[in-house]
């Protein structure tokens, strides 16, 4: 696949899912992903490859590490004696 076509596909997919997730905060992210994945379609194939190659686990681990870092980092307000 040409790099420009791959970029357009990935950009469109991630933008669409992100917009849907932001618009529907009460819907679990996995449900949003399934909604954008036609059975037997390209999005489903892409997700399966991502999942099967450890992508989901790697992303969860990365997000947990970021959350831990954010929680451990003092905010500006705590540095100057203010409330967090």
Describe the protein.
By secondary structure, the chain is an all-alpha fold. The protein has one domain. It has five helices and no strands. It has helices at residues 3-23, 29-35, 42-52, 55-72, 76-79.
Which percent bin holds the helix content? over 70%
Order of helices and strands: HHHHH
Number of domains: 1
Indicate the low-confidence ranges by residue numbers: none
Large-scale geometry: extended
Q: Given the helix and strand composition, which structural class is it?
A: mainly alpha
**How many beta-strand segments?**
0
Distance between the termini: 48 Å
Secondary structure tally, helices? 5
How would you characterize the largest beta sheet? none
Oligomer: single chain
Which percent range describes the beta-strand content? Answer: under 5%
Cα-atom radius of gyration: 18 Å
Provide the residue-averaged pLDDT.
89
State the main characteristics.
84 residues, mainly alpha, 5 helices, extended
Describe this structure in a few short sentences.
The protein has 84 residues and is mainly alpha-helical.
SSE map:
Blueprint: H1 3-23, H2 29-35, H3 42-52, H4 55-72, H5 76-79
């Amino acid at each position: 696949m040409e790099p420009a076509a791959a970029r357009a596909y990935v950009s469109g997919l991630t933008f669409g899912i992100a917009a849907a997730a932001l618009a529907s905060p009460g819907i679990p992210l996995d449900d949003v992903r399934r909604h954008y994945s036609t059975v037997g379609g390209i999005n489903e194939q892409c997700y399966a490859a991502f999942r099967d190659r450890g992508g989901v686990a790697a992303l969860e681990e990365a997000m947990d590490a970021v959350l831990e870092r954010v929680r451990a980092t003092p905010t500006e307000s705590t540095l100057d004696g203010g409330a967090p």
